[in-house]
């Protein structure tokens, strides 16, 4: 991986990488190693924009920094192209877990859309099994190297297609074989969660949790639909929820705000916001407030008591890691180790693990932060 992790330290000198972390919003097809895209692409004769891993990684970062989610999503044509076989899926999943483990992640949920990986002849169930095989191999690798990690799959339906119920049923079929939740992703504007109401009704009837991409490329109505139609327990990104917060006035010490009914509901119900700082800049999700990390509403949401979490979204496209995302926020808003621990505890509490296992995860995080 390209990050010089030892450069990411807090003001007190604490290295961020060894701290135990929770990653809730990490796309499998957005976290490939450039070298893997290059190697697998060459094997299938895929036309690539660069023939060097470093240059290819740079290409992904440049193409992803367009300020448009639609343009950002086009880079996935290359990554999904090399994930159409069992071998490709196993390898990508295994390496993803290895990379998360190296970044200090102790629990992660990898989301991906099986319907995008069928051109090589695999069935939906076979794709899920292949990804689970890779995950289990990656977990064994991390543990063999002396680390600890646990990973769950979030099976995702593409919101612009009409396969929501089919994919929801797939997720539930694999609930005891690695799948911990459901998601919808893809172009948000024009494709509300209500389009997949049948899928969400089915998931609710099976008591199966869902997170929904909302409040990234669309505004408050998208979030409202995610909550009402999708019964979302978390919001994928959710940063545009800040549009429902009115800043009345500010002085040298305080900011006085009024919350709308939607934002008040999200706060009171402790519905987690899966923010991804670098990605939110790249896709224009925070364009209403500016184009710099200091303009991100993350700190406002945090100070107001929302259950904010920090994520990478797509490590390849954003050229990032969870360590780097935490460092960016710490530098921008003068966060210390206590703040970073709160973000991890927020994520642990919002994870799709059973209650007792969420509590155990919180204990692992607290012990790790105290011992660092």
Can you describe this structure in just a few lines?
Residues 20-365 form the Adenosine deaminase domain. It contains 16 helices and ten strands.
Which sheet architecture does the biggest sheet show? 4 strands, parallel
- The total count of strands amounts to 10
Computed Rg = 19 Å
Q: Helical stretch count?
A: 16
Number of domains: 1
CATH class term: Alpha Beta
Query: Uncertain spans, ≥5 residues at pLDDT below 50?
Result: 1-5
Keywords: Hydrolase, Metal-binding, Nucleotide metabolism, Zinc
Cofactor: Zn(2+)
GO biological process, one term: inosine biosynthetic process
Protein name: adenosine deaminase
Please give a structural write-up:
- The protein has 372 residues and is of the alpha/beta class.
- The protein has one domain: TIM Barrel (Alpha-Beta Barrel).
- Helix content is 45%, strand content 15%.
- The chain has 16 helices and ten strands.
- The strands form three sheets. A four-stranded parallel β-sheet has the order 1-2-3-4, with helices on both faces. The chain has a four-stranded parallel β-sheet with strand order 5-6-9-10.
- Helix 6 links the parallel strand 2 and strand 3.
- Helix 1 crosses helix 2 and helix 7 (164-173) runs parallel beside helix 8 (197-205).
- The protein is globular and about 60 Å long.
- The model is unreliable at 1-5 (pLDDT under 50).
